[in-house]
Amino acid sequence: MLIATWNVNSIRTRLDQVIKWMEEVKPDLLCLQETKVDDTLFPKEAIESKGFQVFFHGQKAYNGVALISPHELDDVRMGFIGELPSDTEAIRLGEQKRVISALLDGIRVVNVYVPNGSEVGSPKYIYKLEWLNCLNRYLEAPRKRDEPICLLGDFNIALEARDIHNPKRLTGGIMASEKERLGLKSVLGENMQDVFRVFENETNHWSWWDYRSGAWDRDSGWRIDHIYLCETLVMQARSCLIHKSIRGNQKPSDHAPVSVDINWPPSEDLDYVDGHY
How do the residues of the chain divide into helix, strand and coil, expressed in percent and rounded to 5? Predict the structure, then answer.
C-alpha cells in the first residue's frame, strides 16, 4: 500500500500536476494540504473524471486539506470536531480547515496541515501550540478504537537539527523552537515513529524549499513534511521516499510529495530484515 502526502499550495493552480502524479506514481491514497479553495469551488469533477474518489475540507484562499484515492475510503471525518464534537477548543481551532481523516483498508490515515506559527512568541505561535495540544487529544479516539494510525502532512516543524539546511542559524526560530518540537513529540508519544528516519539517518534530505532567496537552486531546504506510523505499521513499512524532482516542475509547489510503502494487509511471504519488511 502506497500512501503519500503533498502540500500543493493551491489545488487549482497545481491540479494538472496532481493528476499527472497520481497517474504516474499510482498511490493508494494522496493526502493534500493547502488546497486554498472553498469546498464549493474545489475541482471535484476534474479529479473524479480520472477515476479517483476525493474528499475535501477547505476554505477560501487559506489552509484546506483533501484526500484522493482510486479506492473506497471509509468513515471520513472532517476537522477536529470529527473526533472531538463537544470539545469547545476543538470547535474554535477547527474554524481553520486543517484536518481530515479516513479509513483505508483498516488504517486510520490522519492528514494534517499544522499552523506555521509566524514568529516565536507571537499570537500565531501560541495558536500553533494550542493546535498541537488539540491534535494530541484528537488522536486519543482512534487509539481507543485500536485503529492502526498513519499521521501525515505538513507539520511546519523540523523535529531535529538534521532536518534543516542550516541548523546552527535556524534552530530556536519558528519551525525549530523547543516548544514546537516538544508539542509534536507529545502528539507522537511512545508509539508513533517518523518512518523516513527508519530508512534514512543522514541530513540533506528536504521536502520544502522556500520560494524566496533561491532556496531551491541552492538546495537550502527543510524537512517538514512527515509521515508518522504507529508501531504496527512501522513493522510493515518497506520504504519512505521524498519525491524531490517534483519541486523542479514549472510553477511548482514549494513542497515535494513524500510517500510510504507499507506491506498492508500484511503478507506472510515477505522477509523481515532489520526491523521491517
Answer: 30, 25, 45
Beta carbons of 149 and 230 less than 8 angstroms apart: yes
List of residues 6+ apart from 182 with CB closer than 8 A: none
CA distance 132 to 134: 5
* Calpha distance 99→113 (Å, rounded): 7
Angstrom distance (rounded) from CA 227 to CA 174: 20
Q: Give residue-wise pLDDT tens across range 3-26.
A: 999 999 999 999 999 999 999 999
CATH code given to domain 2-262: 3.60.10.10
Q: CA distances (Å), 122 to each of 71, 116, 126, 158, 239, in order?
A: 42, 11, 6, 19, 38
Catalytic residue selected from 113, 125, 138, 228: 113
- Known catalytic residue at 113: yes
Pairing of strands 65-69, 29-33: antiparallel
Instruction: State the pLDDT at residue 277.
Output: 42
Tell me the residue ranges of DSSP E strands in 53-148: 53-57, 65-69, 74-78, 99-104, 107-113
Segment 213-228, tens digit of pLDDT: 899 999 999 999 999 9
Strands of the 53-57 sheet, one edge to the other? 53-57, 65-69, 29-33, 2-7, 258-262, 237-242
**CB–CB of 225/252 below 8 Å?**
no
Closest CA to 96 of 153, 31, 36: 36
Question: In sequence order, what are the residues at sequence separation of 6 or more whose Cβ sits closer than 8 angstroms to the Cβ of residue 6?
Answer: 18, 21, 30, 31, 32, 33, 225, 246, 253, 255, 256, 257, 258
> Would residue 154 show up in a list of annotated catalytic residues for this protein?
yes
Whole-structure pTM value: 0.96
Pick the catalytic residue: 125, 138, 154, 163?
154
